[in-house]
Structure prediction request, 567 residues.
Amino acid sequence: MNEILNLKNAFKTYGKTQVLKDINFKLNKSEVISLLGDNGAGKSTLIKCLSGLEKFDKAELIINEKKVNLKNYDIKNARDLGFETVYQESSVGLEQEIFRNIFLGREITNTFGFINIKKEQEVSMHLLQNFLGLRGVGINPNSKVSSLSGGERQGLAIARAIYFDSKVIILDEPTTALAIKEVGKVLNFIKTLQEHEKSCILITHNISHAYEVSNRFIILERGEIKADIKKDDISLIELQSKLLTIQNEYQ
Amino acid sequence: MKEKYIYQISILVILFVILTLFITTVPEVFLQSRIYISYLSIIPFSMILALSLTPLIIAKEIDLSFPSIMAVSGYIFAQSYLSFDNTFIAFFLCLGFGFFAGLFNGLIVVKIGVPSIIATIGSQFLFRGLAMILSGGTALSIMEIKESFISDLFTGRWFGFFPAQSFWVILFAVLIWFILFKHKFGNSVLFIGDNKKAANMMGINTDKTRIILFIQMGIMSSFCAVLLTLEMANWWPTNGEGYLLLVFASIFIGGTSVFGGSGTIFGTFIGAIIIGIIESGIIAMGLDGFYTRFIYGVIILIAVCVHAKILNKGKV
Prediction:
């Protein structure tokens, strides 16, 4: 079985507004899916619920063929099950060293909680060189994250997720507010996820970025899934017009 | 990495410039050991508070209520010593109050969500008022406590000259440095100050960490009150009042960022020494005591300007 996540009949309301209406979708191993849709379509809410930041009102969540008890489902629980969310700009501490960022919340410590800094630095060096491809240029595990470019910061957060063996990496608008060169870097990081047999849920407004790296597209509108399309079945142009048609229906 | 050292070196230079100035102007005072012994007995009070407050500042929180916590704790220490004639009961009751006072601040800030600067302005009045109510506004004299073991332990003169409080403050500085930069708790503190949202996302319990920081501040304020009461063998209702500005000055001269997320224990340590030696230095130089504050101001402003300059240079 390749299925890593199966969400059934998910509902969520904020006050009187229904933000998620009967959401059903599956995610397979090594699959990258894009969640597309306008602002307010429910993308962020869905992600927040999946990453344990908020709770579904009602849903059935099956991860690795095991039913998850949603009452106790929180960020820590989600991470233990292999979910890691990378938020634009907000997943790293800019003034802290790279090695501290990589190991934040999962430090290598002795029994008294003191950090094995040397070990953390070695692993960080390895990740910097082999995943981010940074060599020589004055970047080392002791550099502050603020000395990395925007795309590299995203890459660092992704590398962190891979190192800690996350199964599903959720990327929230990873290419927004980045220079073109940086976008290329981030898209490459997403492509390498499949080599590592990781699954990925990508939220983006940029359809061409989504098309470049995804295997499947889920279009959300007003809290409902309006389309679930494989990349093989659709061209970029068709996807764009489909998205527009769906959005226009609701205006 | 390098910028950090530049700042630490520059603050050491400031200290040596000030000392050299004092030594050349009033060698008869500053070439004698007496003044330094007196520094060793006085500086630890504000230093212990500054060291304890530094992690809170790094976590982007603040506590303005510690002088008042000191007042109540000192009262509890002195009064329960007088009532029970037992220094250990007095000691633990006093620290116990510090624990609850810190917890109180922490809960208001973290659970109710009041910004710490406002919450602790409130609790500052509350605790100061409590000290007044409890004591009826009168001082307590506890001269006999000078004979006790606890007095020798914390504020005695070891080897006949060395003020014990200096040893304890150095021990505390080393301990808090290790916790802040080598322990995972310190890691959480740094990230909370830098990017609390990210810390939350990465599974750091930011609420618990911040409450612990407030509790730590409360306990150390009480410990400082014990030291002060032992040293003076006396408690008075305005106990602790003068420390507020000195402590903040020590921290910011030391180079801890006002914006949170970074800070230095070494800097606070040296900052507290600089602040501590200035007043008596000024008086020994023959200047009026009125100059003290003015010169504090000059030095604080120079230090924060140098810091801002270095920080800007470090930005890519």
Residues 7 and 25 of chain A are 5 Å apart (CA to CA).
